[in-house]
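Re: the 70-residue chain
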Amino acid sequence: MTIRLSRQDAHIIDMFVKSGEYVTRSEFIRRAVKEYSRNHMEEIVRKTKAMKKLQDMVNSLEQIQDYSKK
């Protein structure tokens, strides 16, 4: 996987690596992704449920329209 970061972001990551907090850039990125996912999981679940509810409403409307055409 390839990602592109600004020089500033890359520099910040390198500072963490040089300080010994992380062994590699990859380790920093993996942890950042895990923390972001953990911190935003409720929002993702909420949005997914809202999308499903909307899709169910669309499906119901289509069924009503199909029935009314008969």
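DSSP finds two helices and no strands in the chain.
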